[in-house]
Amino acid sequence: VPTKYFEKTTHMVKSASGHALDIKYKLSNTRICQNKVCIPHFFFLVKNQLYPPIILGTPFINAIYPFTNINAKGFSATYKDRDISYTFITEPVSRDINALIEMKQKQVNYLQLEIFSMNIFDTLKATKVQEKIKLISEQMAIDICADHPSAFWNRKKHIVTLPYEDDFSEEDIPTKSRPCQMNSELVEFCKKEIDSLLQKGLIKPSKSPWSCTAFYVNNAAEKERGVPRLVINYKPLNKYLKWIRYPIPNKRDLLSRLYDANIFSKFDLKSGYWQIQIFKEHSYKTAFNVPFGQYEWNVMPFGLKNAPSEFQKIMNDIFNPYLDFIIVYIDDILVYSKTLEMHIKHLDIFKKIVIQNGLVISKPKMSLFQTEVRFLGHLICQGKITPIQRSIEFASKFPDIITDRTQLQRFLGSLNYISPFYKNLSRDLAPLYDRLKKEHKKPWTDSLTNLVKTIKERVKSLPCLTLANPAWPKIVETDASNMGYGGILKQINPHDKHEYLIRFHSGKWSDAQRKYATVAHEMLTIVKCVLKFQDDLYNQKFLIKTDAQSVKYMFDKDFKHDASKLMFARWQAQLAPFDFEILYKKGSDNSLPDFLSREYLQNE
């Protein structure tokens, strides 16, 4: 066929066996003729030659449908009152009916998910729904929002105490701190802020024997806000206050609850700490000084060592009965639901709780009925999670050459947050961490500059991961090399059997661990990865895939009476609480964990 008849195409075509074909051109306006019957048809041109040179597929069969007979030798049909027949060159390859059913089921499940997602978006855009949302938003603004954190103390008050350590006597109060010097412009700004706090009843003049220094900071966050922030150095007081050991929630544990949520509403407590009162007899301990006077707090100030724990405890006491649709992280609150109807009910319950407990919500930060939400530094949307851009831009602001030790520490610290999304972070950073060692005196090299550039580029394109669904089977895939280890946690959608990435983990061996035998490396890799992923693996059976055949035997072997193998016995004990099965997987099929465990070698 002359090439002038070739037409470019972007169609994707698969063979009957399911393999993708290399297609760039097609032929239109062709005809297939037999027994004086010509049927219009078109062909795709396959780059790699096939046998036979021409294949008639489903479009041709549809053109002559219904054919009268088909068997292993061929098929015949009546087309425009003429009989035509076609003979198969080779006997057709039948596809497994179960495979076909499974493929169709995947398509149906995918379409159901797409339809469900579209239904949510379309429903929220409907005029009646928008009117309903507007009414709910307006009523919430009236019932639970205000400009002052003390606006609803008439409903309920929350009070905390500030007990000293048992061995502290007030006779030992440190010498008063002197006021921090401020220029005239800052003094005027400070006077206005102090007057505002006095008018709101948040502070009062003080003659306390305590007096900590207040000063202003104007870093990047404050510049973005447009005004400097008043900070009080409570270090002298914190030294003698008794610790309140109440845990702050793990952010990942909180986010894991959102795996099947589709609609979100986000709230921020108005000046959260200031909604909590200080026990009247203890407020003198919070005294602070400025160039023109001394004051003490009626509410819990920022800077007290127990402030986060005290605040989180109060929030948990209020909202813990509603964990299945409310998440609270200090003063950030998220209401989440699977459907619109459920979300309306959940918001009604949330509003009643807030009113009963005298809490104040910030109206400007209230965001209702969202299908995508930024929460705890992540972007959440229908079971998928990515870091928000603002949270990862910080790393890109560092220079490519980082010779200052403190600056290097800050750069490395900025990357810890994105480790679950970065598939080889610990090994990529190993050469940079080596520079923090006291004995390290080697000069900065071009390879380190290139490494920093590479890391900064990768941070800009982190993958989208899925939140672990407790009902979905889990798989841990691991691999070890002489330099380090790598692993991934995946889950299987039981409906379409598709595997979804949940988390990455990788690391570098210590000098002692590098000397371990290969089987020890493989065992320790499994231990490290399972323990890293343990929050998503407890109380369910999961599969471990590894390319080391001997590992299964080593985990089953009894090492109790073998003194030389106590290390293996210890690893067995560490995994004893978990229910898992080990499956051997060929190295060629274990590419991602293998990549995680070996990529560090490229940076050496």
From TrEMBL:
Q: Which SUPFAM superfamilies match?
A: DNA/RNA polymerases (SSF56672)
Residues in Reverse transcriptase domain copies: 201-380
**Pfam families assigned:** RT_RNaseH_2, RVT_1
Q: List the protein's name.
A: Reverse transcriptase domain-containing protein
